[in-house]
Design a protein that fits this description.
The chain has 148 residues and is mainly beta. It is built from one helix and twelve strands. The strands form three sheets. The protein has a five-stranded antiparallel sheet with strand order 2-3-5-9-8, with no helix packed on it. A hairpin with a 5-residue loop joins strand 6 and strand 7. The chain starts with a strand and ends in a 9-residue tail after the last strand.
């Protein structure tokens, strides 16, 4: 367990993303739903594309995010300019791509391979959706210390 990374406890969460005050009217509200799964890498055994909340160094974490408009319709690439995952260590932001070619099930995805020398422990993240008009809405999973 000491060689593992606790990324985030995310088991098919469906939660709200809000902008604040006047920005909320301009950006509207977007709703985020998604999960984190183990991504396939060469020379690793599966199962892949299954929910997990613990990842080891040299494994890949995949984010799958669906963004919904206030009316419940999917916010696809005609509505959104970009969807980005910003890692909690502030090292980088990773752009998500429409899943599949052609896009399937209207969700966005990307994966990140945990470096061999990456520190163990928890790694938070947030998701930022930028609409074509330049307004952005971000969503952060629950931030709560473990209970004893």
């Amino acid at each position: 367990m000491s060689k593992s990374i606790l990324v985030a406890v995310a088991a098919s969460v469906a939660v709200f993303g809000f902008a604040g005050g006047a920005q909320a009217q301009q950006a509207k509200k977007l709703f985020f739903e998604g999960d984190i799964v183990r991504h396939a890498l060469a020379d690793q055994t599966g199962p892949f594309c299954v929910l997990s909340n613990q990842y080891k160094r040299k494994e890949a974490v995949a984010w799958r995010i669906r963004v919904l408009q206030p009316n419940g319709e999917v916010a696809d690439d005609k509505v959104l300019k970009s969807v980005v995952v910003e890692l909690g260590n502030a090292r980088s932001s990773r752009p998500l791509q429409a899943h599949g070619a052609p896009a399937t099930d209207h969700f966005w995805s990307m994966f990140w391979t945990i470096p061999a020398d990456f520190p163990t422990g928890s790694l938070g993240y947030k998701v930022i959706a930028t609409m074509n008009d330049g307004s952005a809405v971000e969503w952060t999973p629950f931030i709560r210390p473990p209970t004893s």
